[in-house]
């Protein structure tokens, strides 16, 4: 519980910041967007991973305070880029929050940002528990111009049949499949199927966790147009992202 205590003070203490990881097209010649990823450097215990503190925040209302801060920072950042979008992670509780659509629209409008430059990343868990309500939320967001990405795709419970119901723009192939591509035939086959599925549904597909040249080549063969991972760039600080955005747009 000390993490929860520390987290509730982290914003005012200035211990949080965002880093940005490019999402590329044309095998790295173009940056189409950046994913915003939260970092927490504590005085007492050094850096703590969001994989650790997000689930704790998710158990309390802290997730909302944290999420609001992340969105605000991301909107501030996207204004510095020539045309790329910022891709923001939303946890299931944020997505299900009362008036999620109204809140996000209000923030985007106040920041003077075009919703087309904001991609909302949600996971399958966020949408399949209450599918009808989620479908309606996504529909409204999409009507307003937001991009919607289904994160960690392939690891959840979604039936392929059901994803038709949701107003999505793209699928992000979970990095476990990209990681397995060179080793197991199964992973390569799954990646291939997700790319086909995306295409036939008119969705974009982003491969996550691309680390090697061999993976880039295999993804080219599979027909995956958008890539993200250490091979292109680790998540970088705001100033570095600004320079990258300006030179590769
Ligand atoms: O960047 P890293 O690989 O350490 O992130 C670990 C996990 O934390 C990932 O699942 C990522 O989606 C999640 N995460 C990172 N930043 C945010 C954020 O701002 N909001 C939410 N909800 N999750 C985040
Ligand atoms: O759950 P989500 O997909 O949002 O998590 C993204 C996480 O993956 C972030 O923590 C980010 O730091 C991490 N990540 C991004 N690119 C790579 C990569 O090429 N390899 C590995 N191992 N992790 C990556
Ligand atoms: Mn993500
Ligand atoms: Na992911």
From TrEMBL:
Transmembrane portions of the chain: none
Superkingdom as given in the UniProt entry: Bacteria
EAL domain mapped to chain residues: 1-249
The protein's name in its UniProt record: Bifunctional diguanylate cyclase/phosphodiesterase
Organism: Sphingomonas hylomeconis
């Amino acid at each position: 519980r000390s993490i929860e205590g520390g987290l509730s003070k982290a914003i005012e203490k200035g211990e949080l910041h965002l880093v940005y990881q490019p999402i590329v097209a044309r095998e790295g010649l173009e940056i189409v967007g950046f994913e915003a990823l939260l970092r927490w450097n504590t005085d007492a215990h050094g850096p703590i991973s969001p994989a650790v503190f997000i689930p704790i925040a998710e158990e309390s209302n802290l997730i909302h305070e944290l999420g609001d801060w992340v969105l605000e920072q991301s909107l501030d950042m996207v204004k510095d880029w020539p045309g790329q979008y910022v891709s923001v992670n939303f946890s299931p509780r944020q997505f299900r929050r009362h008036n999620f659509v109204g809140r996000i629209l209000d923030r985007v409008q106040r920041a003077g940002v075009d919703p087309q430059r904001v991609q909302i990343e949600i996971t399958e868990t966020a949408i399949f528990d209450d599918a009808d309500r989620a479908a309606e939320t996504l529909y409204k967001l999409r009507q307003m111009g937001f991009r919607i990405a289904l994160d960690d795709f392939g690891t959840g419970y979604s039936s392929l049949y059901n994803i038709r119901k949701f107003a999505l723009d793209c699928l992000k192939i979970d990095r476990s499949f990209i990681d397995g591509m060179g080793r197991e035939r199964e992973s390569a086959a799954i990646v291939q199927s997700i790319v086909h599925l995306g295409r036939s549904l008119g969705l974009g597909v982003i491969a996550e966790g691309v680390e090697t040249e061999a993976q880039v080549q295999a993804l080219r063969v599979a027909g995956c147009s958008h890539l993200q991972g250490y091979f292109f760039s680790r998540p970088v600080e705001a100033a570095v992202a600004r320079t990258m955005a300006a030179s590769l747009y």
